[in-house]
Specification:
79% of the residues lie in helices and 0% in strands. The chain is mainly alpha-helical. It has one domain.
Length: 252
């Protein structure tokens, strides 16, 4: 099963690296946050340094959360909804490979693109903040917070793509999904700046808190990672179960 999963993941990565227009579209979306931050920094250049750092830090956390969902969005919508639309999904499932292996292989490929999107966004923010003389969150906090979130976002996106009938339908729902981390992050920044410890163990909420404030409680980071992995596993298991349905494979 492991070998089959790796073969599927490698094939998906190679195939989607050929989609140059899709990759450039994702890059443009990912760089939108650093560009906006640059414009805000220019408009606040005469403000006190501490105030600027607080405002920009909160905005950067929101865009970093969104990047976990943006990096693999175009890839995930084409992997299952696109394959069903092109009538190639059935040919794949006719091979002697389990539905779980298929889903995990596709998830690994989407997670790779999502992680690269997070790295690209963080690198652009690093350049922007260095030019402005501001401090980024420690790299360890960013990695612990966003890498599991990228996997969770990829699992949810694949679930949605599995259920959708066409690429256009998947694009609609996945575009709306991007507003979820944005809305949660804005809620945490403006309405719940001091959340309870248990709230920090919820995916997206905990990542936003770690990016903004760092690990406030020793148990938060490992618990958040386990909770995010658990939610990702549930989404993948559900997606694999969807592939057992005829109306999903053949189209409704």
């Amino acid at each position: 099963m492991l070998r089959q999963t790796i073969v599927i993941a490698k094939k998906e990565v190679v195939d989607h690296l050929r989609e140059v227009r899709s990759i450039w579209a994702s890059i443009m979306h990912l760089l939108m946050g650093p560009v906006i931050i640059s414009l805000v920094l220019f408009s606040l250049r005469n403000q006190p340094h501490a105030k600027v750092e607080q405002v920009i830090g909160s905005m950067a956390a929101i865009f970093l959360l969104v990047s976990a969902f943006t990096g693999g969005m175009n890839v995930s919508m084409d992997m299952l909804a696109g394959e069903r639309e092109r009538r190639s999904l059935l040919a794949l499932l006719l091979n002697p490979v389990s539905r779980v292996a298929v889903m995990i292989g596709k998830w690994l490929a989407v997670s790779l693109f999502a992680a690269c999107g997070v790295a690209l966004t963080f690198g652009a923010f690093a350049i922007t903040f260095r030019v402005a003389g501001l401090a980024l969150p420690p790299l360890s906090h960013v990695a612990w917070a966003l890498l599991p979130l990228a996997g969770f976002a990829s699992a949810v996106q694949l679930t949605i793509s599995t259920y959708c009938r066409t690429t256009k339908e998947a694009q609609t729902y996945l575009s709306l999904l991007v507003f979820v981390p944005m809305g949660v992050a804005m809620f945490m920044v403006f309405l719940a700046p001091n959340p309870s410890p248990w709230l920090l163990c919820i995916p997206i909420v905990g990542q936003q808190a770690l990016l903004t404030n760092g690990p406030s409680f020793p148990i938060v980071t490992p618990t958040l990672i386990l909770a995010t992995i658990w939610c990702s596993t549930l989404a993948l298991v559900f997606s694999a179960s969807l592939l057992e349905r005829d109306e999903i494979v053949y189209g409704r």
